[in-house]
Design goal:
The protein has eight helices and 15 strands. By secondary structure, the chain is of the alpha+beta class. InterPro entries: DUF2971.
């Protein structure tokens, strides 16, 4: 699917969002959001079927799970270290080693069973532990820039600009900022349309037949680019970047905001809501116009149509 030549970011001007305009047009940075900041509880939450296929788990345990020589070596090193720390212990080394080996032999079935249950997400405890571990890791790794196709989407204006009192930024998607891939098949670093589905996708996390990079890209594709069809009206496109590559992190109301630099020429238009206050309108216009490098940016005022359920747009 071809990417639209322009996409839009809807923002309110209330609370922490008041600083969004100045951060964009004075600091030249844009927010990338973590999954925990989204407003949909099903967001980035497919049905996790298992961490790995059962046959691969069994093969792993059989091949590598209990290397007797390696385990005995680890136990011996640990035991020697403890004896060096506690020279007053008079129990013979060989006796303690024999006891530890016996305990490990007794514990092997239980540990193997626990490992299998964790990897297959067998039972509520293991499922919740595995899912929380994964989601927390993904939450720290991936940030999303969320954009939409239409500037006249009335529901987007109502839901994301505090009832038409905010503004919309129009981006030029042909700008190189929106395609930072090193390889053509990468999921991260470029715009991708969100898929809307009736059924949550099923995901098995690990596939020993593909690389780590391919695995992460598959996670990103199936976790971050799928939403319920209830949200289809948003006509959303997203761009994923690695959060650790951000320019800086700031704290707002207890949340970490990851800021990424962007080129000024990727901004085309600022559209003011039809119910924006005069003070906020003047503030936005002042911030945008004070930097000559944004002289190409048009400022447009949204107006309610006299007859139809639609907005009209007039250049200021």
């Amino acid at each position: 699917m071809n990417t639209p030549t322009s996409l839009y970011k809807f923002r309110s001007l209330t609370g922490e969002n008041k600083e969004y305009v100045s951060e964009m047009f004075e600091d030249h940075v844009v927010w990338f959001s973590k999954r925990e900041d989204f407003n949909d509880p099903f967001e980035s939450f497919p049905y996790f079927k298992a961490i790995a296929p059962q046959k691969d788990i069994d093969a792993f345990i059989e091949d590598k799970g209990w290397d007797k020589i390696k385990i005995e070596g680890m136990l011996e090193e640990s035991l020697k270290a403890q004896l060096r720390k506690n020279p007053n212990i008079k129990i013979p080394f060989c006796a303690v080693k024999e006891w530890m080996n016996a305990m490990m032999e007794q514990g092997k079935p239980a540990l193997t069973d626990y490992f299998k249950k964790f990897m297959t997400m067998d039972g509520t405890f293991h499922r919740e532990l595995a899912i929380n571990t994964l989601l927390n890791a993904m939450n720290q790794e991936i940030g999303m820039l969320c954009l939409t196709e239409k500037r006249d989407n009335l529901l987007m204006w109502a839901h994301y600009t505090s009832n038409h009192t905010g503004f919309v930024i129009q981006f030029d998607t042909q700008n190189s900022f929106f395609d930072q891939r090193n390889k053509p098949n990468e999921i991260r670093g470029h715009l991708k349309k969100v898929r809307y589905t009736k059924k949550r996708p099923e995901l098995t996390l690990m596939d020993p037949n593909i690389s780590k990079e391919q695995t992460i890209d598959r996670w990103v594709n199936d976790i971050f680019f799928v939403k319920s069809e209830h949200w289809e009206y948003e006509q959303e496109w997203r761009m994923a970047l690695t959060l650790r590559d951000c320019q800086r992190v700031i704290q707002k109301d207890g949340y970490k905001i990851h800021l990424f630099p962007f080129p000024k020429d990727c901004v085309e238009t600022v559209i003011l809501g039809c119910k924006i206050s005069k003070d906020k309108k003047d503030s936005v216009m002042r911030i945008v116009k004070q930097d000559r490098s944004y002289s190409h940016v048009e400022i447009i005022q949204a107006k309610i149509d006299d007859k139809e359920y639609q907005l009209n747009f007039m250049q200021i």
